[in-house]
Write a structure and sequence with these properties.
By secondary structure, this protein is mostly helical. It is built from nine helices and no strands. Helix 2 packs parallel to helix 9, helix 3 crosses helix 9 and helix 4 crosses helix 9.
């Protein structure tokens, strides 16, 4: 069982509990590999907050682009953050926006690790005659 705080000390709150549940069945080497990939791809909640605040200066939607929500980013950019209402809602919900993105990244990282650890046997893809 890997210690989540040893591998990812920057986590807190719901994200810490979620990642701890993922790492509980991993050995130290797997947890270290997961932590390296996850740390590189996750988004910090404070960065989402700062980019949301930039929306009031005239570049609304930057946080949505960073979170991979391109459609909403374009919509916010063209409508000034839906007349600033969407930007205000995102300022209130910035932690949940970051958490949802990071959960998705954790699942993608686990999927990538499982494909690396269990490569598909190319011979098994041949049709049976």
């Amino acid at each position: 069982m890997a210690n989540v705080l040893r591998h990812l000390p920057e986590l807190e709150g719901m994200e810490l509990g979620y990642i701890q549940g993922i790492l509980k069945n991993m050995n130290e080497e797997q947890a270290h590999m997961f932590a390296q990939v996850y740390r590189a791809r996750r988004k910090d909640a404070q960065m989402v907050l700062i980019l949301s605040l930039v929306g009031f200066v005239g570049f609304a939607g930057l946080h949505r682009f960073v979170l991979g929500q391109i459609g909403l980013g374009i919509l916010y950019l063209l409508t000034a953050g839906l007349c600033f209402i969407g930007t205000i809602v995102d300022l209130v919900n910035y932690k949940s926006l970051a958490y949802e993105y990071n959960v998705k990244v954790a699942h993608e990282t686990l999927s990538m690790m499982s494909h690396m650890n269990n490569p598909e046997n190319p011979a098994s893809n041949e049709p049976i005659i």
